[in-house]
What does this fold into?
Amino acid sequence: MSLQVDVRARREGFVVEAAFDAKGGETLVMLGPNGAGKSTLVDALAGLLQPERGRVVLAGRTLDEDDVHVAASDRPIGVVFQKLLLLPHLTVLENVAFPLRARGERAEAARRKARDALERLGAGALAEKRPAELSGGEAQRVALARALVGEPGLLLLDEPLSALDVTSKTQIRALLRRELSTFGGVAVVVTHDPVDAMTLGERLVLVEDGRVTQSGSPDEIRAAPRTPYAADLVGVNLFTGVLEPADDGTALIRTADGVVAAALSPGMDPITRDVLGILRPADVALHLKRPEGSPRNVFEGRVRFITVEGDRARVGLETAPPLVAEVTAASLRALDITEGLHLWASFKALEVRVVAR
Amino acid sequence: MSARSRSNVPPGLHALAALAVAFVALPVIGLAIRAPWSDLGSLWSPAARSALRVSIVVTLGATVLALVFGLPAAIVLARARLRGAPLIRGLILLPIVLPPVVGGIGLLTALGRRGFLGRGLSAIGIELPFTTGAAILAAAFVATPLLVLAVEGGLRSIDPRLEQAASAMGAGRWYVLRRVTLPLLRPQIVAGVVLAAARALGEFGATITFAGNIGGRTQTLPLSVYETLQSDPGGAILQALLLVAVSLAAMIALRGRLLSR
It folds into this structure.
């Protein structure tokens, strides 16, 4: 099971071009600002929009190429649309059974599988409700059950978390991670939220203004972001860990590699345990000697890489946890930083933004 | 919003609206005042009963025809990207504004004994004019566009993304139509059927031109009202009131369905 995409698609005068591959079991996250053309690509992959040119191949089967255009209804896909599009005249159970019934499965078997899918996603109790009676989080579970029930080869999730409130967002995110980790096909998640992107997928495809500007793991993009968007949103330091409140109103994020002090964001649920700390590279200061004063976060390590982009430079450090700092090219020269050099890095607890995972 | 909630209608409009309602209600009131209520039994006379029976057959037949042909027409008009769609829509909706007698003459020139299609039908032994079938066709002619109008309006209010979502779930076009489009359209289809049936029930001009006024065969209630008016004005008024009652019930049954999205 694999996916190869190299297409140009047009909708209402807006052109999107993208090329990427994905392997079975892999979750590819398409990240980009609103209006970048992500939903157009989703429609093209789903077969709802015929590409102007290019090809889409799923598990060796050509879905689009030149004169070939496999209709949406003949593609082995499951889609969670941005607006969910649950069928309002059907019950939740009938909605989830729909993809099976449409492909000719018998009513009895379809209902049983639909019920199983709903149970697995924690929505078993909703079976007899109508879509209009569901909360945002409930509707999202149902839409996900409906997309997964037919065991598709390609799962398309268009902004699966964007319409949710904070609490259900955390729940659905955990649910999505669990489902995606066991999903055998190719999953493509579309989002404009870098936190969602980095918590859901191992590989990112950045889409800006109808073009793929960069793709790779978050680490690779962090090391050398190619656009300001990539630098600002993906090129940040991320600390994935468990939150431990401290007495002084701050908190510690215990990651696999080390401990980072952070300030709790106002309104943050104090019992949230699984968190993500976000730190902008520009907020990391570099020192040749252990810094004086009392910044809460001080780490030491060797320089792993240096990338220079105009008058800015990114310095990757083998600290625990690993850090990326952004400094001016001038200070890079002033400190005479080279790869392998032993450095100190510091940042304030206040600079670390904490969000629930 | 319920009618009882505080509305933002300017007060002067109420008076004008009341005048409009009165204008429509006046003839009905006139009929009610002049009706020989003691003579109500005349509605059960053999002639009136026969007209009622013909009306029921014609209305049902015409409504079925309107549904069978109007529903596909509405779906194609709303969804297919047709060249010349405005012309086609104009043709289908034409009977709404055409004098029914013109429609009747048209049907006669096409399907009459010497009409360009009627000659062929005649040759294989089918004689349409002056049969109940002709009355059904005449009523269907004027009723179908109303159904098309109601259903096409409904189709335009359905989010096409829902149908796309269904096809992305493996549903072929017929399956989408049967399991998504038509169920979502149900209120507008019901409205269209009620509207078409009411129009078919009231049809006069095309019927009398194309099907004639033959008791027990093509004489529907409206034709019977017209004929009875010469000999028995009181009886005609009672039959007219029967038509008013049935039509009013149909319009009330619509309950603004045509307006709701």
Remarks:
- The two ends of chain A are 29 Å apart (CA to CA).
- The mean pLDDT of chain A is 90.
- Chain A has two domains: 2-234, 237-356.
